[in-house]
Amino acid sequence: MENKKKVTAADVVKEQDKTKKAEKYNQYVKDKTPTHNKIINLINAFWVGGAICVIGQAFNNYYTHLGCNKDQASGYTALSLIFLSVLFTGLNLYPKLAKFAGAGTVVPITGFANSVAAPAVEFKKEGQVFGIGCKIFTIAGPVILYGVFSSWVLGIIYYILMKMGVV
């Protein structure tokens, strides 16, 4: 078994030779970089994402059981998932879940709600206007912008195709 001495940041800083300093720095970074098991990450993402979808389906079935039609049940389900995502973000549970499950938490509606709520929580201390108001769409803003732009472009294409009698 290899008994290699761990390189510390102080060792890197103290080294005078540039080549050795670069080698120590690379070894230091390699030692500090966490390693991940891709298979375990994939399994965690799969079951957590699936669990979020099962919770959504359970909400949908519950609202349908209460007498809502399909559209109403879908709306209430979306609201419930958004509420839970924002609540878990506010309680600092969603980031821990995202760290554990990775892409499994990027189920569109919960991931989007988290991307809006997380900056609001983070920048709350900077005030209502310059904190929350300015930063709330830091992550979600580009998604909204390009989503609206894409739908606008597709609407124009659809309109042109409709006028040409293609659709």
TrEMBL record:
Pfam families: SpoVAC_SpoVAEB
Family annotation (InterPro entries): Spore_V_AC, SpoVA
Transmembrane segments: 39-63, 75-94, 101-121, 136-161
Record keywords, A-Z: Membrane, Transmembrane, Transmembrane helix
Domain of life where this protein originates: Bacteria
PANTHER family associated with the record: STAGE V SPORULATION PROTEIN AC, STAGE V SPORULATION PROTEIN AC-RELATED
NCBIfam families documented for this protein: spore_V_AC
Full protein name: Stage V sporulation protein AC
Organism in which the protein naturally occurs: Anaerocolumna chitinilytica
